[in-house]
Every structure is written in structure tokens, then in C-alpha cells.
């Protein structure tokens, strides 16, 4: 293996500022009765740079939502470090902690259950400010109304209750609520998954606009490759709690360097009709995260797996410039420069 | 395997439960005003005579010692002797237990036979006139006190129509057939209220299940509606059903006391009522123990049935 | 494993399912809501037809009406639907068991009976639908489980639904559907709730079964990508009406209704990165609203005066309900060489 081991921030070449958010070898484990533990996130390295949109894509059991919850402190970080602008979050004092909490906000998947049915939209949107007692009440109201206007909701809608709103309007309200603390990082966890195509397009457009107007960095978590590929500058593919590939969206879509990413890309149904796609249909089910396979976690479903894959855990290595893959056979399968993959 | 484990854990939890229940009753009954020695010797007995009786019965010992003696004997099946008659309590209970158990069983059958089908019918025709009629009747049924219902039944069916014997029939040992006939009205008095409760619970469980996705699947494959309702939806509703049956057994045993009194039946109920009036602590204590055992046994059966009925419970 | 290309499927024209002027209203205390308006279409023998639309388009109620799963106390249907010449509408649930029709659903988690084994649900279907004895039913159940790609079918017969993964449960659902010996399978969003790699497996399975058994499929979905890769023909529905139907390739590459074109333009993809997606402003009119002209007009960029007139579904193989379709040039899906 000629590629370098992935070290802290030597990837980009040239000096780059510390990432806005960095996960270093972060693991999240849950006790599940008896002495068993579920490793939802397993030694994940992840970096989100200021101003970029990072897509995280994975299927059920991949731990993609747990990563988001760990960042927000909603899931226990069993080991590893969370760095905010290069500083360890666990060492923050009260003031820093408060600042961090305001700077990282999340938009959830289900627009219906995320809003309190007994409060008006304006009250719900103002809530994060009320909780933090920021400024006087009047100014909080003003900030909330501004955020609502920014997501395209009128003052009239602000006075309504959630059940009087459409699904799209509710998701807009959720986004507005995430914006009132003026976050720097917005985490979207399957935020458009419950919406119809036309609404989904509206929300995706809105996120792109807000990213510019609010100078946001976005971490976009989804199972839907086309949505992630549309929005993200960079993508991380996760499988059973581990990052298996990390690359710019263009590089990932054009030349995936991990058999799982390749299969995922190929499984995505596409309206653009092309003759004779060689679709890779993976056999078998996604293994349970309670009992993940040893070695490379993907080896049980991988058509290229060899004996070594069942025993050796692959590390993320640089397969192409700034394109990292965790596969023992990357080089063999895909070559170093992106030659044809039929080398097997 | 699963069932064995349930039986094991139930037995383990049963012992402390029984000790706690009898312990509480042991001390509670001593708070009731009145003295068994006075009840035995009469109001005009001399203090010396009373002290003698108390010593005889062991009542002069500290309460914890009394309780310890009692529980030690109870484990060997000896529940002591009645303060009044001197008869062994175990014997007294055993002679009266079959009648109460039969009455409870009959009442349970009445409750299920009435509650189950009406609950299912109400659910099948939810929000229809039939449903409204059934749910209103169930609410009325729940509001009716057992003893009042018992008296009404006696007035109509026994005194009025002469269909069933009235209060004070022969005992089970003397004339089993006539004694069983005598159980019909008390079983109805007990069971009707239980049936109303079962009807309501079955109705709500069935409404939920009949709207479930899997029922739609069964309909899509064109299974007969009767099979969908009475086999699939009903089996899926069996957990709340088993729960309510368990609760009903405890409730029926409790209510049997009153109903036995109304119908003059020589069961555990009348035994415990008499014993309470005469401060016969040994008898009260024994009946409580037996009732607790029956209730715990039922709960174990319910627990086991959960595991047999729903494969998702491990 | 590689896919069998859709284009090589034999296409037979003889219509198996014919739906004519199907209309549907729901009665409630406050009045009637009309959710289907004169829906007419057909499905040929062995054909896979996609029924596409967003929530509220009427695609799911169409399928429920055909499968006889609507509550007759609230649903009022009119029109005609025949399967192989047999009428589908207005028959009680009692005499549906000889119709060669089966249906699978979106949520494999809840669609199977949780307290009965896979084997008993499958065998019960076989005994009731095909009059098989218990022994025959068991043998046939094993064959079916094998056919839908379940490994170790003998052991699976004794499994309960909660012991299987989502993908496996949907396979079992398909096996149960096959036990009805269907000539038409109605699949209501069968892959929406499963992961994309599992979806690929299930789509392959449905396509294979359709060919092997000469079984037609009415495939209800909101996902145009799934339609493109699975179906022979497609029907676009909007607000309870069919607005466009035709061969999948034609409709997707040259859509003739602005709504179909709008749905296509709204799709994100790697190619749209950094661009603004074309959204469709406005909302679907509620079923209580009476519309005389084009029902899409109020959201349409190409709206003109003539759109206020009643519109017909016009054309031969590629039909569209839009008076302006001849003069419009709408952009469809691109024919791309994907760089893989």
C-alpha cells in the first residue's frame, strides 16, 4: 500500500486553517442489555471546513444520524475527540460551551413531530433564544420573525399552529428555528426525506440560499445519493459505523474507490436513461450493527472480497489526490490513476 | 424453555409477595377494635380468665414472635386453629375453597362469554348503532354494584320466575347438582360486570387491530373476513385480553365475598366475613394467604400466556 | 450480479387490466371529497406500468379501489374496471378470492401479521386461494420462498416477521402475493421504506418474476428513477386525474405535460450541483375544490386563456391532458453517458 495514512490535515496540501468541526477517532457505544454493546459509530475521523457542505451518506445501521447526535451532545462519545475550531470541546468552560451550543444547530427529518403542537410557529422558532435568555423578549421576537421571513414564511403564518401548516411550511419553520441563534454549522439529518419531489426541490434551494446569506457551513446527512450529490462539496460514505470513503463529490461520483460506494452509486435509480448500465446489485442484507463482521465490515457483501478482507481492518488511505478509501484492494481494483476497474 | 423461566421467576417473586401480604394483614387486623379473648369468653369474663385465654392463643407474645410462629407453620401447611371453634384453619378453608373457586370460574366464563363476542361485534361495527348500544350497555354494567345486581337476579329469576334456587341451597358435598344450579345466579351477578369490562377492552384492542396494516394485507389476499377478525385480529388482541382476565380473577375473588353473603353460599367469603366479625385472626390470616396464592397463580398464568401468544416477547 | 436490461422484455399488447372512467369520492360528515376523476388506463399482459405522482395525486387510492380495500361505508366509486374480463369494482370482499390479483405494500414492517409465522401466513394463503391441502401448501410455500430469494426457506417457515430484516420481509410479502397466483400484482411503493441497495435487489426480483410468470405489475411510486429503471409504461397523476401516459422512455425523454416536466426538473442529481432546482410553486388543490379547466393551471408556467376550458386526455400511445402540449417544448430527462 503506497498511499499515506491519513494524518491530521495534511490532506489538502498547503496550510489550511483548522477545520470548523473535527471528529477524531470518535466512537459511540450503547449498552444493549447483558454485557453486549452496540457500536453505532466506530473510530470515525471527520472534518468539516468552514463554508463547505459536507454530505454524509449511508444506509440503515450506518451510524450516520448517530454522528450528528454525537456532535450535538445527544449521543455519548465513548472515545475519541470532538474539536471545534481546533479546540477540544470536552475542555470547554461554560461560556465556550454556550457559544458552541448556539453555533451548532440541527434540522430534523420529521417536520411534524419536531414542532410543539400547542405553540404557535413564532413561539417555537423563538424558543432557542428564550431558553438561552438572549436579549430582551422584544428583540428575540424580532430575530424570530426575521428568520421566518428568511425561510419564506409570512408574519401571518408565524401566528399559526403546526397543524395549520403544510409539510413544506413546517420544515421551513424548523429551519428558521435552527437559524435564530445565528449558527455557524447547520446539521441537516434527512431533512428532506419526508417531502415530495417538488417540495424537496424548494427546501434544497432554500438551504443553498441560506448557506450564502447566513454564511453557513452545512453537514448534510442522507440516505439519498442524488440529494447529497446535488448539495455537497464533499462526501463521506459510511457503512456500519465506519467511514469507508471520503472525497470531493465530483471525485466520488466519477471515480468511486470503494466497492461499497460504487455499489451505492450504481443502486441509485436514475431518470437519465442510459443504455446497459452494469448495475451492481449487492447480495444479502446489511449486517446488524450489534454483530458487525470482522475485518472489513463490507466483506460479507463485497463481490471483490478475498480471505484477507475478513481478517484485516482497512484504514482510510489516499487512493487519489484528496480522495480517501478504506479498502485493502483499492489499488488492485481501481488502479492508482483511475484506470479501468476490470483488473480483477 | 421460555415458559420454564417464567415459572421459575414467578415462584421466586411469589414468596416475598406472600410474606409481605400476610405480614401486612397480620398487623392490620390487630388494629381493628375488639379482642378475640372477649369474643370467646363473653363480655363478663374475669380479667384472669381473659389473660388465660390470651396465653392459650399465644396473644400475649410480642407480635413479631406471633407472626414468626404463624409463618413457620404455614410453610408446612398448618395454618393454626380457629380461635373460636378450635377447628384447624386449613381444614375449614379446604372445605370451602372449592365452592369459591367454582363460583369464580363460572363468573369468569360468564364474563368472557358475554364480553368477548360483544367486544368484537362492537369493534367490527365501530361507530354504528349496534356499537353505541353495546358500549352504553357496558358502561351501565360497570356502574352496577355486584350485591345490588345479585338481589335483582334473586327477585326476578328465583322469587319471580322460580328458575333458579334462591339463597341457602345445599352444600357442594351434599347435593352437587343442586349446588351447581345454585351457583348460576351468583355467577351471573359477578360475571356481568366483568363482561362489561372485557367488552370495552376487547373493543378498543380490536378497533386498533382491525385498522392495522397486516389486516389490510389479509384482506388484499382475500381471506374470509370472519377468519381475519376471529383468528388474526383476535390473536393480535390477546395481550390486552389476557391482562384483563388476570385483573378480573383478582377482582372476582374480592367480590365473591359480598356475593356469597347475598346468596348465603358457604364459601370462603362467608367464612372470612364471620371470622372478621368475631376477630378470629387465625382464619382471616389463612384466607388471605389462600386468596393471595390464587391471585399470584393467575398472574403467572397470564405471564406465561403472554409468551405463548406473542412471539415478540422474550 | 448484473441487471437484465428492461428494454429486452417482450411486450404484449392484450390488455389484462382495463380501467374506465374510475371516479371515487369519500363521504364524510362535512360532505363529499372527490379524489379520483374519470381515471382510464390499461395494463397489458406481462407489462409493468408505473403510476406516478406526489402525495394527494390519487395513485394509492386508485390501487386500493382496484384491490377492493376501500371501506364501502365511506368510499363511493363509479366507472368500470375489469381484470381479464372480470369486473373488479362493486364486488363484496367475499368473492374476490378467485381474482388473479395480489397486492404488496410500502411498510414491510407492519404489513405482515406479527403473531403468526411466515409459514402459516403463506400456507393459509395457498389453502384459501388455491384450495391446496396442507401438505401441498407447505411444499408450494418452500418453492415460493425460494423463488423470491430467501435462503434456507425451510427454517424461515417457522420464523416470525420480527425475526427478519426489512428486505426479507418485503420478499415474504411478495411470496404471499405470489401465493394468490396473480396475473396482476399491484405494488404500492414497495421499496420506499427500504435501503437503496436492498431496493435494487427488490426491483430486480419484481422484474424477474414479471417475466418468469408473465405477470403484469401496476407499480405505484413517487420515484421517477424507479419508474425509469423498472417500468415499461408510465402514468402521471395529478390531483386525482391522469395528466400524461405513455412509454416510459418517451414520457421521460420528451414529456408533454408541464407537470411531468416539472417533476423531472425538480430532481436533484450530481449534474445539478451548484444550480438552483426548478421547483413547482404552489400546492395541489384540495379534493373539495371544484376545477373546471386544467387542474394544474394555477401552478403552471405555461398557463394561457385556453387552460380554463375542460381538457381531454388526447393522443394515441403517448397521451396528455394539456391543450397547449403541441406548442410547448418541454425539457425531459437527458440521455447521458454516465462516466462509469
From TrEMBL, chain A:
Entry keyword annotation includes ATP-binding: yes
Stretches assigned to the ABC transporter domain: 23-265
SUPFAM superfamilies, A to Z: P-loop containing nucleoside triphosphate hydrolases
Single annotated GO MF: ATP binding
Domain of life according to the entry: Bacteria
InterPro entries xref list: AAA+_ATPase, ABC_transp_ATP-bind, ABC_transporter-like_ATP-bd, ABC_transporter-like_CS, Oligopep_ABC_C, P-loop_NTPase
Family annotation (PROSITE patterns): ABC_TRANSPORTER_1 (PS00211), ABC_TRANSPORTER_2 (PS50893)
GO annotation, biological process: peptide transport; transmembrane transport
Keywords: ATP-binding, Nucleotide-binding, Transport
SMART domains, A to Z: AAA
Protein family (similarity comment): Belongs to the ABC transporter superfamily.
Protein name, UniProt field: Oligopeptide/dipeptide ABC transporter ATP-binding protein
Species assigned in the record: Nocardioides albus
From TrEMBL, chain B:
Main location, first listed in the record: membrane
CDD domains: TM_PBP2
Membrane topology: Multi-pass membrane protein
TM segment ranges: 6-27, 101-123, 143-164, 241-263, 283-302
One GO location term (cellular component): plasma membrane
Localization of this protein: Cell membrane
Keyword Plastid: no
Entry annotated with the keyword Membrane: yes
Biological-process GO terms, alphabetical: transmembrane transport
Keywords: Cell membrane, Membrane, Transmembrane, Transmembrane helix, Transport
Taxonomy, superkingdom: Bacteria
Domain (ABC transmembrane type-1): residue spans on this chain: 97-302
Entries under InterPro entries matching the protein: BPD_transp_1_N, MetI-like, MetI-like_sf
PANTHER family for this protein: DIPEPTIDE TRANSPORT SYSTEM PERMEASE PROTEIN DPPB-RELATED (PTHR43163)
Protein family membership: Belongs to the binding-protein-dependent transport system permease family.
Protein's UniProt name: Peptide/nickel transport system permease protein
Organism: Nocardioides albus
From TrEMBL, chain C:
Gene3D superfamilies named among the record's database cross-references: P-loop containing nucleotide triphosphate hydrolases (3.40.50.300)
Its membrane topology: Peripheral membrane protein
Annotated Gene Ontology cellular component terms: plasma membrane
Keyword Cytoplasm attached: no
Entry keyword set: ATP-binding, Cell membrane, Membrane, Nucleotide-binding, Transport
Coiled-coil regions, chain positions: none
Localization per record: Cell membrane
Record PROSITE patterns: ABC_TRANSPORTER_1 (PS00211), ABC_TRANSPORTER_2 (PS50893)
Domain ABC transporter, first and last residues per copy: 17-264
A Pfam family of this chain: ABC_tran
GO function term, MF aspect, one: ATP binding
NCBIfam families: oligo_HPY
PANTHER family found in the cross-reference section: DIPEPTIDE TRANSPORT ATP-BINDING PROTEIN DPPD, OLIGOPEPTIDE TRANSPORT ATP-BINDING PROTEIN APPD
Family the UniProt entry places it in: Belongs to the ABC transporter superfamily.
Protein's name according to its UniProt entry: Peptide/nickel transport system ATP-binding protein
Lineage: Bacteria, Bacillati, Actinomycetota, Actinomycetes, Propionibacteriales
Amino acid at each position: 500500500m503506497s498511499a499515506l495514512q491519513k494524518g491530521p490535515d495534511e490532506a489538502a496540501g498547503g496550510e489550511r486553517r483548522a477545520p470548523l468541526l473535527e471528529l477524531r477517532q470518535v466512537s459511540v457505544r450503547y449498552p444493549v442489555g447483558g454485557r453486549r454493546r452496540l457500536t453505532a459509530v466506530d473510530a470515525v475521523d471527520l472534518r468539516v471546513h468552514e463554508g463547505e457542505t459536507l454530505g454524509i451518506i449511508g444506509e440503515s445501521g450506518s451510524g450516520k444520524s448517530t454522528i450528528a447526535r454525537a456532535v450535538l451532545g445527544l449521543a455519548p462519545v465513548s472515545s475519541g475527540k470532538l474539536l471545534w475550531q481546533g479546540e477540544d470541546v470536552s475542555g470547554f468552560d461554560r461560556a465556550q460551551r454556550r457559544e458552541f451550543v448556539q453555533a451548532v444547530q440541527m434540522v430534523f427529518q420529521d417536520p411534524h413531530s419536531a414542532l410543539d403542537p400547542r405553540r404557535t410557529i413564532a413561539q417555537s422558532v423563538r424558543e432557542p433564544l428564550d431558553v438561552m435568555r438572549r436579549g430582551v423578549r422584544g428583540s428575540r421576537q424580532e430575530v424570530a420573525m426575521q428568520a421566518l421571513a428568511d425561510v419564506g414564511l409570512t408574519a401571518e403564518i408565524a401566528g399559526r399552529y403546526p397543524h395549520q401548516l403544510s409539510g413544506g411550511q413546517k420544515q421551513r419553520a424548523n429551519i428558521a428555528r435552527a437559524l435564530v441563534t445565528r449558527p455557524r454549522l447547520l446539521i441537516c439529518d434527512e431533512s428532506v426525506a419526508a417531502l415530495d419531489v417538488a417540495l424537496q426541490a424548494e427546501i434544497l434551494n432554500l438551504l443553498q440560499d441560506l448557506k450564502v446569506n447566513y454564511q453557513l457551513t452545512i453537514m448534510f446527512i442522507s440516505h439519498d445519493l442524488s440529494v447529497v450529490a446535488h448539495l455537497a462539496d464533499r462526501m463521506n460514505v459510511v457503512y456500519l459505523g465506519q467511514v469507508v470513503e471520503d472525497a470531493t463529490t465530483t471525485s466520488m461520483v466519477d471515480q468511486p474507490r470503494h466497492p461499497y460506494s460504487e455499489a451505492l452509486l450504481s443502486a441509485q435509480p436514475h431518470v437519465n436513461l442510459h443504455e446497459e448500465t452494469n448495475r451492481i446489485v449487492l447480495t444479502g442484507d446489511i449486517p446488524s450493527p450489534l454483530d458487525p463482521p470482522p475485518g472489513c465490515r463490507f466483506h460479507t457483501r463485497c463481490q471483490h472480497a478475498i480471505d484477507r478482507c475478513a481478517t484485516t481492518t482497512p484504514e482510510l488511505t489516499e487512493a487519489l489526490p484528496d480522495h480517501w478509501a478504506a479498502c485493502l484492494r483499492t489499488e488492485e481494483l481501481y488502479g492508482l490513476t483511475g484506470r479501468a476497474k476490470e483488473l480483477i | 424453555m421460555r415458559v420454564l423461566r417464567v415459572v421459575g421467576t414467578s415462584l421466586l417473586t411469589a414468596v416475598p409477595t406472600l410474606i409481605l401480604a400476610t405480614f401486612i394483614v397480620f398487623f392490620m387486623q390487630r388494629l381493628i377494635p375488639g379482642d378475640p379473648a372477649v369474643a370467646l369468653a363473653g363480655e363478663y369474663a374475669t380479667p384472669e380468665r381473659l389473660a388465660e385465654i390470651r396465653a392459650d392463643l399465644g396473644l400475649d407474645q410480642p407480635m413479631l414472635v406471633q407472626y414468626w410462629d404463624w409463618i413457620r407453620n404455614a410453610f408446612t401447611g398448618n395454618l393454626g386453629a380457629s380461635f373460636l371453634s378450635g377447628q384447624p384453619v386449613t381444614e375449614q378453608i379446604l372445605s370451602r375453597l372449592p365452592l369459591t373457586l367454582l363460583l369464580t370460574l363460572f363468573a369468569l366464563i360468564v364474563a368472557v362469554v358475554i364480553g368477548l363476542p360483544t367486544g368484537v361485534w362492537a369493534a367490527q361495527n365501530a361507530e354504528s348503532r349496534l356499537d353505541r348500544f353495546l358500549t352504553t350497555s357496558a358502561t351501565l354494567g360497570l356502574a352496577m354494584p355486584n350485591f345490588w345486581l345479585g338481589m335483582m337476579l334473586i327477585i326476578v329469576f328465583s322469587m319471580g320466575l322460580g328458575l333458579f334456587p334462591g339463597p341457602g341451597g345445599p352444600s357442594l358435598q351434599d347435593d352437587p347438582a343442586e349446588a351447581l344450579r345454585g351457583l348460576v345466579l351468583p355467577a351471573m351477578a359477578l360475571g356481568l360486570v366483568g363482561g362489561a369490562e372485557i367488552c370495552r377492552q376487547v373493543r378498543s384492542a380490536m378497533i386498533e387491530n382491525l385498522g392495522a396494516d397486516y389486516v389490510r394485507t389479509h384482506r388484499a389476499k382475500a381471506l374470509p373476513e370472519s377468519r381475519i377478525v376471529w383468528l388474526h385480529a383476535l390473536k393480535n388482541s390477546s395481550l390486552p385480553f389476557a391482562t384483563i382476565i388476570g385483573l378480573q380473577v383478582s377482582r372476582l375473588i374480592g367480590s365473591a365475598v359480598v356475593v356469597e353473603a347475598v346468596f348465603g353460599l358457604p364459601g370462603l367469603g362467608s367464612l372470612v366475613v364471620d371470622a372478621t366479625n368475631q376477630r378470629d385472626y387465625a382464619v382471616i390470616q389463612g384466607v388471605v394467604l389462600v386468596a393471595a396464592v390464587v391471585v399470584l397463580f393467575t398472574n403467572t398464568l397470564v405471564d406465561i400466556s403472554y409468551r405463548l401468544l406473542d412471539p415478540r416477547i422474550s | 450480479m448484473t441487471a437484465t436490461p428492461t428494454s429486452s422484455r417482450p411486450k404484449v399488447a392484450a390488455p389484462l387490466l382495463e380501467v374506465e372512467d374510475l371516479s371515487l369520492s369519500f363521504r364524510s360528515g362535512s360532505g363529499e371529497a372527490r379524489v379520483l376523476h374519470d381515471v382510464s388506463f390499461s395494463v397489458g399482459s406481462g407489462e409493468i406500468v408505473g403510476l406516478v405522482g406526489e402525495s394527494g395525486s390519487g395513485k394509492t387510492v386508485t390501487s386500493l379501489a382496484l384491490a377492493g380495500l376501500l371501506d364501502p361505508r365511506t368510499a363511493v366509486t363509479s366507472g368500470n374496471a375489469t381484470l381479464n374480463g372480470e369486473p373488479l369494482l362493486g364486488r363484496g370482499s367475499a368473492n374476490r378470492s378467485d381474482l388473479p390479483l395480489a397486492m404488496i405494500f410500502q411498510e414491510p414492517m407492519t404489513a405482515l401479521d406479527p403473531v403468526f409465522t411466515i409459514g402459516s401466513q403463506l400456507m393459509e394463503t395457498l389453502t384459501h386461494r388455491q384450495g391446496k391441502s396442507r401438505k401441498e401448501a407447505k411444499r408450494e410455500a418452500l418453492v415460493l420462498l425460494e423463488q423470491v430469494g430467501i435462503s434456507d426457506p425451510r427454517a424461515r417457515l417457522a420464523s416470525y416477521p420480527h425475526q427478519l430484516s426489512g428486505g426479507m420481509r418485503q420478499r415474504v410479502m411478495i411470496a404471499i402475493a405470489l401465493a394468490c397466483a396473480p396475473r396482476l400484482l399491484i405494488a404500492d411503493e414497495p421499496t420506499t421504506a427500504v435501503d437503496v441497495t436492498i431496493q435494487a435487489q427488490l426491483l430486480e426480483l419484481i422484474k424477474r418474476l414479471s417475466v418468469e410468470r408473465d405477470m403484469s405489475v401496476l407499480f405505484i411510486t413517487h420515484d421517477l428513477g424507479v419508474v425509469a429503471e423498472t417500468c415499461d409504461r408510465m402514468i402521471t397523476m395529478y390531483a386525482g386525474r391522469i395528466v400524461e401516459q405513455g412509454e416510459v422512455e418517451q414520457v421521460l425523454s420528451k414529456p408533454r405535460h408541464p407537470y411531468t416536466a416539472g417533476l423531472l426538473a425538480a430532481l436533484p442529481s450530481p449534474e445539478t450541483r451548484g444550480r438552483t432546482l426548478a421547483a413547482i410553486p404552489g400546492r395541489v388543490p384540495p379534493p373539495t375544490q371544484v376545477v373546471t379547466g386544467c387542474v394544474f393551471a394555477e401552478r403552471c408556467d405555461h398557463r394561457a386563456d385556453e387552460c380554463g376550458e375542460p381538457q381531454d386526455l388526447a393522443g394515441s400511445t403517448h397521451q396528455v391532458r394539456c391543450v397547449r402540449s403541441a406548442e410547448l417544448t418541454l425539457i425531459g430527462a437527458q440521455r447521458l453517458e454516465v462516466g462509469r
